[in-house]
Design brief:
The chain is an alpha/beta fold and 309 residues long. The chain has 13 helices and eight strands. It has two domains: 193 residues, Vaccinia Virus protein VP39 (Rossmann fold), CATH 3.40.50.150; 84 residues, DNA polymerase, domain 1, CATH 1.10.150.170. Strands 1, 2, 3, 4, 5, 6, 7 and 8 form an eight-stranded mixed sheet that branches.
């Protein structure tokens, strides 16, 4: 069962407390099973609009049911990195808010055949959209040691990336690695420092998944176009589950809040620094009650910013 993380906190931040905002146009860039979208639609006025995107065909099927029930809602299959084109196709000039709930969803983790989790054996797929791109199994079958090492190190923060990459290539030359438990076994046997209570393959699986789905690239693309997508007063709400994602969002917001960076002593007014956003509140984490009911929320961190110029 999928439990939406920071449901009310995210929608509260997205819509704010001005009733006029309830007439606006919004985007849910990571529809999933529609938890955030359902709450947004519940609060929007009859004039409000919501466009959602997701790569996953199962998420799209759920979104199509939403479309049948609510004319204010539309869903498009694809990455939120293409949101600019999607809203143009829907004749939406700009958005009053963008919500992103990053990472993998519970239904994806729970389905062994999707290949996201080593908790159950299944084909090593890992694609958000199984109908597009290269699966993890296909990539592992071809990638060389330096590329595998780079993915594990940069996207998984795996300390023993080289050692694990060499083990993966050595094993695949003898037996193709096409299932989750096979990869988990190879990584675990190559990992010299197991942490108590943590599977040694956790970081490797995370790094490969992020790479296969271009998750950081998509986030960077969205952040680069966010100011063009948002109206003045429009809000960006991002829930991250990984330090690399959160670092990107935090840096982006800081840059837009600070404005131009000039050498010390340059005679310029603060109002001339081209500040584009203001930060709304502090970073928000799930409360103890939510974490107790949904362990996935433990690593969630939400940041919010509002466009001012």
């Amino acid at each position: 069962m999928h439990e939406t993380v920071l449901l009310h906190e995210a929608v509260d931040a997205l819509l704010g407390d001005d009733d006029q905002r309830l007439h606006g146009s919004y985007a849910d860039g990571t529809f999933g099973r529609g938890g955030h979208s359902a709450e947004i639609l519940k609060r929007l006025s009859e004039r409000g609009r919501l466009i959602a995107t997701d790569k996953d065909p199962q998420a799209i099927a759920t979104g199509k049911e939403f479309e049948q029930q609510d004319s204010r809602f539309a869903i498009v299959q694809g990455s939120f990195a293409d949101l600019k084109n999607f809203i143009a196709d829907k004749n939406i000039a700009s958005l009053d808010g963008i919500l992103l709930d990053l990472g993998v969803s519970s239904p994806q983790l729970d389905q062994a055949e999707r290949g996201f989790s080593f908790m159950r054996d299944g084909y090593l797929d890992m694609r958000m959209n199984p109908d597009a791109g290269q699966s993890a199994a296909e990539w592992i079958a071809e990638a060389k040691v330096p590329e595998i090492r780079k993915v594990l190190k940069e996207f998984g923060d795996e300390r023993y990336a080289l050692r694990i990459a060499e083990a993966i290539v050595a094993e695949r030359d003898k037996n193709p690695i096409t299932t989750t438990l096979h990869l988990q076994k190879v990584v675990a046997e190559a990992h010299p420092a197991w942490e108590r209570g943590k599977n040694p393959a956790t970081k490797a699986f995370q790094g490969i998944r992020i790479f296969i789905n271009n998750e950081l690239g998509d986030l960077e693309d969205l952040l680069n176009q966010a100011l063009d997508l948002l109206s003045i007063g429009g809000r960006l709400v991002v829930i991250s589950f990984h330090s690399l994602e959160d670092r990107m969002v935090k840096r982006f917001i800081k840059q837009q809040v600070r404005g131009d960076v000039l050498p010390a002593g340059v005679p310029i007014l603060d109002s001339q620094l081209n500040k584009r956003m203001k930060q709304i509140g502090k970073a928000v984490r799930a409360g103890s009650a939510e974490v107790e009911g949904n362990v996935r929320s433990r690593s969630a961190i939400m940041r919010v910013a509002e466009k001012i110029a």
